Amino acid sequence: MILPPNLRPQQHRCATKPAPLSPAMDSKTRSLMPPSSRRHRSLALAVLFALLTPIIHAQKTATTQFSGQAAYTLTKQLLDVAPKRFNGSPGHAKAEEFLKQHFAPEAAKGNFVADTFTATTPAGLQTMTNYIVKYPGKKDGIIVLVSHYETNYPLRDINFYGANDGAATSALLIEIGTILRAHPPEGYCIWLVFDDGEEAVKTWSNSDSLYGTRHLAAKWSQDGTLTKIKALLVADMIADKDLNIDYVENSTPWLLDLLKVAAKNTGHSASIFKYREAEEDDHLPFAARGVPVLDLIDAHYGPTTDAMPDGYHHTDKDTLDKISAHSLQISGDIFLEMIRLINQRP
């Protein structure tokens, strides 16, 4: 956590030198003070320190703590303005505007980048846009956090809103951005990526999926950005009420180890690694190019039935009432702790 400015030691230009000890209290006479007086003085200082420490700690952490409730509210706001966000839809354009409005302060500094490209899809050429928000740090290197923001194109004709699948994790990244805006990174740079075209346009395949991250991985490979990435973390479907983040086998092993530590440190060990499996997700284009990656996903979303073999995933049941501020709090806590732990690595 970062100490707020009002609690940091200040060296003022016009600070005066400490007043000299009075003759009655020079170092020699102090040594002659009765032991009981020195003990009383030490005890008083110890009590004062004990009283101030929790106050300082509370002030230090209050403004840097992730708010699951704020992320939940942002999810609701995004769903209110853009419930259906499939490529080319009015809702997709409104979701883009939602991101632009929220990150206007970053845009004013040149730290909000629109990465627009044309993708060849089974439905023809489609224009897609990734948005990258950059928070400069004090160390060379970048930690990238990723969430897709669009909804499934094949489900455009039903009321598929993707509350957990795209909306909530976008809100999670926005809330992390709010923290970073107030408290810029002390370690590596942090980049937030809101990627487009994660979903298939017709049927999931290597060529019909992950359009945004495939494009971005190739682009960053060409311009040298990939070599600067210390870790890339994907947030996907980690706001459902019955949250348990999977052990994703095709993530980087040391990041999986770090996830276990992060969960323990934040008191959320019970919310990870119930299931172990590989996932096809936005981490793969970067993993294929040698970037350390971690996919944070709960692929087990809602009860499975004959009618819904994948639970609420990719159905009209993926709505706001299926997610919770509590689960977003868990995910947000883990993401911030992962950033701290990555920064501690040699």
From TrEMBL:
Any matching Pfam family: Peptidase_M28
Native species: Tunturiibacter gelidiferens
PANTHER family xref list: GLUTAMINYL-PEPTIDE CYCLOTRANSFERASE, GLUTAMINYL-PEPTIDE CYCLOTRANSFERASE-RELATED
Keywords: Acyltransferase, Transferase
RNA-binding keyword on record: no
Domain Peptidase M28: 130-338
GO molecular function: glutaminyl-peptide cyclotransferase activity; zinc ion binding
Protein name (Swiss-Prot/TrEMBL): Zn-dependent M28 family amino/carboxypeptidase
InterPro entries: Peptidase_M28 (IPR007484), QC/QCL (IPR040234)
